[in-house]
Amino acid sequence: MRFTRRHPLLTAVLLCALAVLAARPADGDHAPGHGSASGVSAEVARLYEEAAAATDRYEAGLREAEKQRAEARLLEERLDRERREMAVLHEDLGRIASSQYRDGGGLPLTAHMLLADDPEELMRGQRVVRQAEVSLDKAIGRSERAEARLARDEAKAAAAWKELEERNTELAALRQGIERKLEAARWKLQGQADASVAAGACRGAVRLDQPETRFTTGWVAPVETYELSASYGSGGARWANRHTGQDFAVPIGTPVRAVGAGKVVRVSCGGAFGIEIVVRHAGGYYTQYAHLAAVAVDQGERVAPGQWIGQSGTSGNSTGPHLHFEVRVTPETGSAVDPVAWLERHGVPL
């Protein structure tokens, strides 16, 4: 009989592993402030890009529509000229027909010869009649060609305008649909951020697909498109003293960029700043990015200029979606300098 040799250490390790697996929450059943928000963050980032692309296509359609309007105005002016030319042609036709009637243009040549007193005068009259007939034929041809051209131009203009309106309507509907999905995803992402702040514990870093843009300068603005709101040193009931940074009014989920190369020295999720990131740069300065909805870096990680390090939100002591950007001489609050002037010195005017 073969006996199995027991390994006490291996048995203990297996039991510990089973205990850990049993204690893990099921997928989609994360505790508040824990787990990965990568699904929602990635969806927001994707929809953000799709919305931007749809907006670009829609605005290009509007520019094309304006160009089409200008072409339509030129076409209408040309059509007006053609209509006036046709009216002149019709008047010419009337005068030629009236002249032929007065000169007996409808009589046969034999009758003219019998009635004429002077054969030479008769021949001259016949030449005039033939010239009038040739002029009449030319006038009729010009009139028919002008009418056909007018009809073609009107049909072409109407078809082009209809196609452009239909395309712009489709683009507008596409953009609105993406924006509705984006808005819903943004608030879902913000809900996860609020749960993290309430728990005082950050979720893991969300790894977003970085943009292909490569910056040739060492410093950039913290967000690409923005409106400046509360400025450095401004007063208000929300702050104990003065505002310590520069606020950028941007929607929830807007990619937040590292303004320069550096190292992440803090990622925290609690307090008045909500979810925040602090980066140390060469020269002894620190930049803070606060009220975020998600982070895309871990503490201790090195970042490059323009790298997406998080997504904006309205976590913590915030009255609406925005990015609070701060420049400090220490990693702690209370050592802030004017961030607008600091960025300008680094070649980034806002």
What's this entry about, in short?
This protein is α+β, with helices and mostly antiparallel strands and 350 residues long.
Features:
single chain; 350 residues; alpha+beta; 10-stranded antiparallel β-sheet; 14% strand; disordered N terminus
Structural overview:
The protein is an alpha+beta fold. It is built from five helices and ten strands, in the order ααααββββββββββα. Strands 1, 2, 3, 4, 5, 6, 7, 8, 9 and 10 form a ten-stranded antiparallel β-sheet that branches. Strand 9 (323-328) and strand 10 (336-337) form a beta hairpin. The chain is rod-shaped, with a radius of gyration of 40 Å.
Structural class: alpha+beta
Number of strands: 10
- SSE string, helix = H, strand = E? HHHHEEEEEEEEEEH
Quote the distance from N terminus to C terminus.
84 Å
CA radius of gyration: 40 Å
Q: Which whole number gives the mean pLDDT?
A: 78
Which residues form runs of ≥5 with pLDDT under 50? 1-36
Largest sheet: 10 strands, antiparallel
Approximate shape: rod-shaped
Give the DSSP E fraction (strand runs of 2 or more residues).
5-15%
**Number of discrete helical segments:** 5
Portion of residues in helices? 40-55%
